[in-house]
Design goal:
Elements lengths: L8 E3 L1 E3 L3 E8 L16 H22 L2 H14 L2 H12 L4 H19 L1 H5 L1 H16 L12 E5 L4 H6 L5 E6 L7 H9 L3 E3 L12 E5 L4 E4 L3 H18 L15 E5 L5 H6 L4 E6 L13 H15 L3 E5 L29 H4 L1 H14 L4 E5 L5 H14 L3 E6 L2 H5 L1 H5 L4 E4 L1 H8 L18 H17 L3 E3 L7 H10 L3 E4 L4 H9 L3 H12 L4 H10 L3 H7 L2
Parallel strand pairs: 3-4, 4-5, 5-6, 9-10, 9-16, 10-11, 11-12, 12-13, 13-14, 14-15, 15-16
Antiparallel strand pairs: 1-8, 2-6, 3-7, 7-8
Helix pairs in contact: 1-2, 1-3, 1-6, 2-6, 2-8, 3-4, 4-6, 11-13, 13-14, 19-20, 19-21, 21-22
């Protein structure tokens, strides 16, 4: 029996807007190294073999995955191949430590260094521990940690690594609940991409007995243990509402016909069919670093061109906005990432690679230039100055790109948006990183989620300033951060003058509905009400207050 009473409601941070009810299934815990572990004559070879087996397994899962899952699995596979980590574990074995214990101790040392470094490295401790757990299980002849589902279930765990997620039969995952994590962590992003209702930072979920029915409501941020009929009916109503919203397939526009194209974020050409099935009008963010993750060396120009051409052909003339390589910070690449950076989120990432690896930037632009069409736009991440925007635009146009832009993720770029827009054809706001850099808060730290709220007044001010610059110069200003997926925020963005919204495919239906039930004038009033607020919560409440009541009710807001 659960230690929680029937109908108990646990609170957390919801990801997305959907809901589900199903029996709870707990992720199998990882095996632990036994005390007084013996050291056999082949222990060092066994450690090498175990790391190799885990790395190959993760790489295979990455190859079969798409989008964010492919990205993070590829990065985790690189961890399992890390020579220094393996050498540390082998050295401990040779000194007389049991193999599973040696791996555990070696990983603990690296995890401590990652946590001390903070930022991106601290977030990767979950993935590092996932490698440890799989290697230890291999050494002990135990099953890998994870979960084999036999029925549709709510999956619960302390936290889920990308490898844990990839091992799940996603057709049987009704929802995901974790005790740790944050709304912009790997689990939340992947769940959002797949349209799975998800709650993170839910204290007490692991106290619920496996098999107990649990209802989760991502919009409300609640998990109800052993729900009654009233809660079950509410979940069914939410599911019916989401299905009704998805039936509207019209292009994105306000009630009075002001066009606002709704686009999808993808990681590879394999993601295009799902985006089009959700009636995306194109792609507003193609994260090209996903194509590089499994590579020990930079892919050849021909290989890159083939991957870009596949996405262009799959979109069949629809808009494709390609973001050039954003290696560094939370997207390390074996051949590009600086291993000695103390704070990689503030280091050589994005277009800054032109300072250290100019040939990598040039080869990608050359590949894009070879396949560029009138509907293919190219933009660079991590632009901070007009001079950088000018440099990128010159390189991209020389390579054959016809429509060139940059990302606005750094407050300096938003503050100088007029000058930057004079150098390029368009800009796209990456609101996740913009919030991170504006609030001086690592966007992967769940305990700081309140500071990363896209409704933070300082962040809204920078978005508004960028949109205003676009209006003055008559150039497009899109948003491809996750704030675009919030139907209420979408109304604010429309009212500020944003010209396109790009998001996870699962969010398109609710955003489309919200826009189609408000005029542009209403959106402008909603935007001004949000900008006048003094706190994130007040800004959202102000926006909700100005929304059409029937639209609010339909959206369950």
């Amino acid at each position: 029996m659960s230690t929680l009473v029937e109908g108990a409601v646990l609170s957390g941070i919801g990801v997305g807007r959907s809901a589900a009810v199903a029996p709870l299934a707990l992720v199998r815990p990882a095996p632990r190294a036994p005390e007084h572990e013996p050291v056999g004559p082949d222990a060092a070879d066994a450690v090498h073999a175990a790391f190799t087996h885990v790395a190959e397994g993760l790489a295979a899962r990455a190859a079969a995955a798409s989008g964010n899952l492919k990205e993070v699995l590829g990065a985790t596979a690189l961890m399992a191949k890390d020579r220094a980590l393996i050498a540390d574990a082998v050295k401990r074995v040779e000194a007389g430590t049991g193999p599973a214990t040696a791996v555990t101790e070696a990983v603990a040392g690296y995890a401590a260094m990652f946590e001390a470094a903070g930022g991106y490295l601290a977030e990767r401790v979950t993935d590092l521990n996932s490698v440890r757990d799989r290697v230890v299980a291999r050494l002990l002849g135990a099953p890998e940690p994870g979960l084999s589902l036999t029925e549709r279930s709510i999956v619960a765990a302390e936290d889920l690594s990308p490898a844990d997620t990839a091992a799940l039969d996603l057709d049987l995952v009704a929802g995901i609940v974790t005790e740790l994590g944050g709304p912009t962590g790997h689990t939340a992003i992947i769940a959002g991409q797949l349209g799975i209702p998800c709650l993170v930072r839910v204290a007490g979920i692991l106290d619920v007995a496996p098999g107990t029915p649990v209802a989760i409501d991502a919009a409300a941020g609640t998990a109800t243990v052993d729900p009654g009929q009233e809660v079950r009916d509410a979940v069914e109503a939410i599911a019916a509402r989401e299905a009704a919203l998805a039936s509207d397939t019209a292009p994105g526009a306000t009630k009075d016909g002001h066009a606002l194209p709704l686009l999808a974020n993808i990681g590879s050409a394999a993601d295009v069919p799902r985006a089009l099935a959700a009636h995306a009008e194109g792609v507003g963010l193609f994260r090209t670093e996903v194509l590089f993750l499994d590579e020990a060396t930079a892919p050849a120009v021909e290989d890159q061109a083939r991957a870009y051409r596949a996405a262009i052909e799959a979109l069949d003339g629809r808009k494709l906005v390609v973001r050039t390589l954003d290696a560094g910070a939370d997207k390390p690449l074996a051949f590009a990432t600086q291993p000695d950076e103390e704070n990689p989120a503030l280091g050589v990432r994005g277009f800054r690679l032109a300072r250290t690896l100019p040939e990598l930037v040039e080869s990608q632009l050359l590949a894009l230039g070879q396949v560029s069409t009138h509907s293919t736009w190219v933009m660079a991440p991590m632009i901070a100055t007009p001079a950088e925007a000018r440099d990128f635009a010159s390189r991209a146009r020389a390579a054959g790109a016809t429509t060139v832009g940059v990302m606005v993720e750094v407050p300096a770029a938003a503050l100088r948006a007029d000058a930057i827009l004079r150098e390029v054809d368009f800009v796209s706001l990456g609101t996740n990183d913009l919030a991170q850099y504006t609030m001086a808060t690592d966007r992967l730290r769940g305990e700081l989620a309140d500071l990363l709220d896209p409704w933070q007044p300082a962040v809204l001010d920078l978005v508004a300033a960028t949109a205003a610059a676009g209006r003055r110069l008559g150039k497009p200003v899109g948003v491809c951060g996750e704030s675009a997926s919030d139907p209420v925020m979408a109304l604010v963005l429309a009212g500020l003058g944003i010209t396109s919204l790009s998001m996870s495919p699962g969010a398109l239906a609710s955003v489309r509905f919200a826009l189609r039930h408000h005029t542009l004038a209403q959106c402008e009033a909603i935007a001004q009400a949000a900008l006048a607020a003094g706190s994130p919560s007040d800004a959202r409440v102000a926006a909700l207050t100005h929304m059409d009541p029937e639209a609010r009710a339909t959206l369950g807001l």
